[in-house]
Amino acid sequence: MPHLFAGLMALGFAAIILFAAHRVLIHLEHATIISTAPENFPLKNQGLVFQRAAAHSPNVLPIYGSSELLRPAAADRGNIFFRTAPTGFQLSPVGVGGANPLIMLQKVGALGSALRGKKLAFSLSPAWFCTAKPGSRGYTGNFSPMAATEMVFGNGLDFGLKRDIAARMLQFPETLEQRPLLEFALRRLASGQLLDRVLFCALWPAGKIQTALFELEDHWAAVHHIQRQTKPHPRLQEQPVDWPDFIAKANKARPADAGDIQQSSPFDRKITSGSRDVGFLSGVKESPAWIDLDLLLRCLATVHARPLVLSMPLGGDFYDHAGISRSARDEFYTKLRALVEQYHFPVLEFQEHDEDPAFLIKHQSHLTAKGWAYYDRALDDFYHDRLPRR
User: Would you state the pLDDT for residue 239?
Assistant: First the structure.
């Protein structure tokens, strides 16, 4: 009995120490959010610590996207423009090249209840939705075992939604080759059979242990980043922004990156307008990105988040030259609005800039300084409960 009592006391003290250390780490992460929020770095994308800290900060607006969040390094780019919180909030970017809606929804599902009532934004690349057979490199390169595991074994999503997500994730087996526990759980979820559901429930404790280990590793990596790589926190200063004047100047000024805006095309000559519409519309109709976006919107509705969906426009000049008509491109915008509005979320697709050569860098899904000016105004309107303006 004395040995048993001593053992129980030791376990109790160890639990108290671990709990206290956990709270100290969380406090440090939240206390330094002013410095980490505007930055975009690998640990933020692959882990969840900094995303969760941003979700809990009332003065931070997370934005999930792809490579457009990194380029160009213009003063109007969202995380730079809002770095000092000129209108009362900072923008926290999450995403690198190739990140798509299937990657984003895993992060949303992993954060779960942390996003309840939270405003956040999503930047979409139109190219995802215009290809029937997109490559898997972007998904594979951005896959986060931590986010996937926390989503699968977390309590934020219902079983039916997890089943549909699992079915999509299993279409990328290369991300699961070294993760037998996660793969087994996804197969049980995707099956939908009663026996497989029982097996998944039996596997749940092992999944929670794996989740706890991931979280511990993430917290310690965050401490290392904060101590050694965090930049000095910016001096926050509110200042009025005259958005009509700001946008008017963006429309008139010659962009600093004007040399990069020239439209390029793999075609030596202009193709007859509309001659390639059938292939384009087939890609829009069959792209699996629509399934992933629908799953992302379902996730956001389930966790009761408050999202704004932004989409860059198609590079109309490039598509005109390639023989894809404006009427065909309008099908993309119409389909996007219809899907998002089913969930009663606000959406801006910037359709009016479809043929604006100064809005995108070349024909790529990268915003120019002018494009970011319009994004900035939309984000500010959204944060301050103003209806986004088209």
Answer: 85
Average pLDDT, the chain: 87
Beta-ladder partners of 63: 93, 121
| 262 against 331, higher pLDDT | 331
Closest CA to 317 of 359, 345, 286: 359
222, two tokens: 């965050």
- Tell me the pTM: 0.90
What is the identity of the amino acid at 6? A
SS (HEC) of 319-386: HHHCCCCHHHHHHHHHHHHHHHHCCCCCEECCHHHCCCCCCECCCCCCECHHHHHHHHHHHHHHHCCC
Q: Show Cβ contacts of residue 59 under 8 Å, excluding neighbours closer than 6 positions.
A: 85, 88, 89, 90
CA dihedral 304, 79, 356, 96 (to 10 degrees): -80
8: which residues sit within 8 A by CB, 6+ positions away? none
Report d(CA 183, CA 125) in Å as an integer: 29
pLDDT in tens, 288-320: 999 999 999 999 999 999 999 999 999 888 888
